[in-house]
Design brief:
Layout lengths: L2 H13 L2 H8 L3 H15 L4 E3 L4 E3 L1 H29 L3 E8 L3 H15 L3 E8 L1 H10 L4 E5 L7 E9 L1 E5 L11 E2 L8 E5 L3 H10 L5 E6 L2 H9 L4 E5 L12 E5 L6 E8 L6 H9 L3
Parallel strand pairs: 3-4, 3-5, 8-12, 9-10, 9-11
Antiparallel strand pairs: 1-2, 5-13, 6-13, 7-11, 7-12
Helix pairs in contact: 1-2, 1-4
Pfam family, one: HTH_1
Keywords: DNA-binding, Transcription, Transcription regulation
Family: Belongs to the LysR transcriptional regulatory family.
Length: 288
């Protein structure tokens, strides 16, 4: 068994198909199948349950997959640690960030970090919270900037400041132009535009206030929420910092006075996995 074979097992397990794994590994399918067969013969057990279109890990395969991840993480970590010793703080930091204002926070943080560490480069991956978490687990990125709520168990977290939800709207939809803050109950019966990420949170809060939200539109991007509201189609409900994500020449916003709707951006990284000196320094110097 060698590192190359372990990478094959990981690729097949995560792609769910030999063909897809071979494509991801930039190799032909027959040699990959032969390597798996040879490894199964060496270990004396089947590693995969083969179906017509999809294959799954056996119990032994799941154990090997878990250990393979750990072994490869340790191998990669050793290479990075040696590079850190040889070259100091330099290299590329791979970070995933959510569209709902994470990119704004990250760009400011990168500017500050680059001033102190000019040899650092960044590789940024955009996505929603669930996509970022998936990339962290697969080792595509080292750090993630995600928005609460999310399941914390697998990660170390550094929480940034909390922020409220806002109602962004055009003047013709404004029922209280003299106020900058509204209560959540005032949203009852009004056409709401929401980022699907917060649908459950809003639904749960509506239940507390005994009304069903009037959803004009649900979508998968905070920027879309802002753009649709700017067109006068409804009231955008987003975290306050997301107001800066898209052009809006007709909108103003009101803070929703509801503690249940406060969220935070969090920097997260995997537990039980090596964190490079570069990532550690970035986290340490990241201002709250």
């Amino acid at each position: 068994m060698d590192l190359r074979q372990l990478r094959y097992i990981i690729a097949i397990a995560e792609e769910g198909q030999i063909t897809a794994a071979a494509k991801w590994l930039h190799m032909a399918q027959p040699p990959l199948s032969q390597q798996v067969k040879a490894l199964e013969e060496e270990l004396g057990t089947a590693l995969f349950k083969r179906g017509h279109r999809h294959i799954e890990l056996t119990e032994a395969g799941q154990l090997l997959y878990t250990r393979a991840r750990q072994i490869l993480d340790l191998s990669d970590a050793t290479e990075r640690e040696i590079a850190d010793l040889q070259h100091g703080l330099r290299g590329t930091l791979k970070v995933g960030t959510v569209s709902s204002s994470g990119s704004i926070i990250l760009s400011s943080a990168m500017q500050d970090f680059h001033k102190s560490h000019g040899e650092i480069h960044f590789e940024i991956h955009d996505g929603n919270t669930f996509t970022i978490i998936d990339m962290l687990q697969k080792g595509v990125i080292e750090l993630g900037l995600v928005r609460t709520p999310f399941k914390h168990e697998l990660f170390h977290c550094k929480m940034l400041a909390q922020e409220p939800m806002i109602a962004a709207l055009t003047g013709d939809l404004d029922w209280c132009p003299d106020r900058d803050t509204i209560s959540f109950s005032e949203l009852a019966g009004r056409p709401l535009i929401i980022y699907r990420r917060f649908a459950q949170l809003l639904s749960d809060t509506c239940a507390v206030y005994n009304f069903t939200p009037t959803l004009f539109c649900q979508n998968d991007d905070a920027r879309t929420t802002i753009l649709w509201a700017n067109a006068g189609l409804g009231i955008a409900i987003t975290p306050a910092s997301a107001f800066q994500l898209a052009a809006h020449d007709r909108l103003h916003y009101k803070i929703i006075d509801e503690p249940r709707l406060y969220t935070s951006i969090a920097v997260i990284w995997m537990k039980n996995r090596y964190l490079s000196s570069l990532a550690e320094t970035f986290i340490k110097e990241l201002k709250l």
